[in-house]
Design brief:
With 558 residues, the protein is an alpha+beta fold. 20% of the residues lie in helices and 34% in strands. Bound molecules: alpha-D-galactopyranuronic acid (ADA).
């Protein structure tokens, strides 16, 4: 859906910039039909951005209306929204055209403009996620910002056009040959000849009609996408009047024994958990901050990122593809209880979001695994049913990637058997136990997994760490000091490395993040302070500790 790519650049208009905005604090916009009569005391709001970065709406989590006038040429067009938080209704020229749930996956609208002229988009964005029926729900440890948080584009399209390009492939055993299928949709009348190109080379010409289409092709001497050594391919479909493209990379993802393998080589995961969060931009990170994050993470010796706890922006995934960084993409299902897993509405929302996440991000070679959920009630049969349902759907949508979830229920968890590898969140040294608890943990956990008849899969530590407030330094290294945060990381990481069943680790977390105001009593500064860098990306001592250990591991694993 986002693969408008290089070939559509000339036809693409960025609808970002200044929009009109009016907070609908009393929820009267629908009744007063603001889609037709927009309030005249509206203010200017940048798009993309989060309204919580405007001082008047720092804590606002209600409804906000946006309006934009734009010029479009006569003919077919597509309007792409990459992310609106959290529920939204879109009106085009006063007509309701779409309702969408979920801030972190996008959606699009196809339309046909009858004449050249000015048109109006109105978006009703509802950022309320504060009860047990919302996704994410009220229990969560991050700030969900409101507004049109990701870019909006208008693409002018010819009378007949192709869209939704998606490349599926299998690699030969020696990984030299790709047997691929390009799937796409076509819209319009008649039969049209399209040629498939890879970079500048024509591969095939076929006749295309409206509906779902497929082209099978074989590529020899593949340049593989590898971890920290990525190679990317652009495929385009071109007719006399139309051109669309998609970028992807070829690599094989598998589990072998206690390791994840990329292209038949074991890769020990040296990772961080990262929220898309910044005090000045909220979720709406501009490209230069996304790139800065990537540079800091790569410089630290990482080879993977867990996108905790929601699908990341297209821009960041593009960077992962380009840097060769493995990415774990998951849904914002954080600490859900059995009761919620039994709620049909929530389940349907989740399944729809999961489908969108996969379809929209399918072509990113960096994504190696889909995460189902985080710290949910996976000790219950209801959650087992939901986990199985999600896994079945994900594997149907995408048989080429792995499936996992992050568990804090460890010794009570009954869902591990659904996963391709096992992930554990645990904070000894911070919550409760001494950090040395890790020493005895693995024996106990291996025994538990054996009892559950779980085969010997890789075990990943998907979260561990502790809080350190930037600049807080002390001789005794108490909690919240930068020294104590280093001690937890160093001891934990050294223990993990001694256990061959551990296939990797993900430090919690990359940067300090803003949390909900309601958490102020347990989270100093109303931030989760477990970042290796603070919210402005200034490195703490822990950054250098992690860097030293990750660089050492990288050398050992060479
Ligand atoms: C959990 C959770 C994270 C974060 C962390 C913490 O394990 O998955 O989102 O809240 O704990 O900092 O306590």
């Amino acid at each position: 859906m986002y693969e408008y790519g290089i070939k559509r650049q000339a036809a693409t208009q960025d609808l970002g910039g200044a929009w009109l905005f009016k907070a609908d604090k009393n929820n009267i916009g629908k009744k007063e039909a603001w889609e037709n009569t927009f309030p005249n005391d509206a203010i200017t709001m940048p798009v993309p951005s989060c309204w919580n970065n405007t001082p008047a709406y720092y804590d606002y989590t209600g409804v906000g209306y946006y309006k934009k006038e734009f010029f479009a040429k006569k003919g077919n067009a597509k309007i792409i929204f990459e992310g609106v938080s959290n529920y939204c209704t879109v009106y085009l020229d006063g007509e309701e055209v779409l309702i969408h749930k979920g801030a972190y996956t996008g959606f699009c609208i196809y339309t046909n403009f009858k004449t050249d002229g000015t048109h109006t988009l109105v978006v009703r964005a509802d950022a309320y996620v504060d009860d047990e029926n919302t996704v994410p729900n009220e229990t969560r440890d991050w700030k969900v910002y409101g507004g049109i948080i990701r870019p909006v584009y208008l693409i002018s399209l010819p009378e007949f056009f192709v869209d939704d390009l998606c490349v599926h492939y299998t690699l030969s055993e020696d990984l030299h040959t790709a047997n691929a299928v390009l799937e796409f949709s076509a819209y319009g009348e008649g039969i049209h000849a399209y040629t498939l190109f890879t970079d500048d080379k024509a591969l095939k010409t076929i006749d295309v009609q409206a509906g779902k289409n497929k082209i099978a092709f074989t590529l020899e001497n593949i340049r593989l996408w590898n971890v920290l050594a990525p190679q990317l391919y652009t495929f385009s479909l071109e007719s006399d009047t139309d051109a669309a493209s998609v970028r992807t990379g070829f690599r094989k993802v598998a589990v072998n024994g206690r390791r994840i393998e990329i292209n038949n080589k074991p890769v020990y995961l040296r990772g961080v958990n990262r929220h898309e969060d910044h005090p000045e931009w909220g979720h709406a990170l501009p490209l230069h901050i996304a790139k800065k994050d990537m540079d800091i993470i790569v410089n630290m010796g990482c080879n993977m990122i867990r996108g905790s706890h929601y699908p990341n922006s297209r821009a960041f995934l593009d960077l992962c593809d380009e840097y060769g960084i493995l990415f774990w993409s998951e849904l914002p299902l954080w600490y859900y209880k059995e009761k919620q897993a039994a709620n049909e509405d929530i389940v349907n929302t989740i399944l729809k979001m999961g489908h969108e996440m996969i379809v929209q991000n399918y072509n990113h070679p960096s994504i190696f695994t889909w995460g189902l959920h985080n710290e949910c009630e996976t000790s219950t049969k209801t959650f087992l049913r939901l986990t199985e349902k999600m896994a079945t759907q994900y594997r149907t949508d995408d048989p080429s990637r792995l499936i996992t979830y992050a568990s804090d229920k460890v010794f009570d968890d009954i869902c591990f058997k659904v996963c391709d590898f096992i992930c554990v969140n645990r904070y000894p040294g911070w919550y409760g136990d001494e950090v040395e608890e890790w020493e005895s943990f693995f024996n106990k956990f291996n025994t538990y997994l054996k009892e559950q008849n779980i085969p010997e899969l890789p075990i990943m530590i998907s979260e561990f760490g502790g809080g350190g407030i930037y600049g807080q330094s002390s001789f005794e290294s108490p909690k919240w000091s930068e020294q104590y945060q280093c001690e937890i990381l160093e001891k934990s990481m050294e223990i993990f490395r001694k256990h061959p069943e551990v296939g990797g680790m993900m430090i919690w977390q990359y940067c300090d993040i803003r949390v909900r105001t309601a958490q102020a009593m347990s989270r100093p500064r109303t931030f989760n302070n477990k970042g290796l860098v603070n919210e402005y990306r200034q490195p703490k001592m822990a950054y250098y500790t992690a860097k030293k250990l990750y660089e050492q591991m990288a050398k050992e694993d060479e």
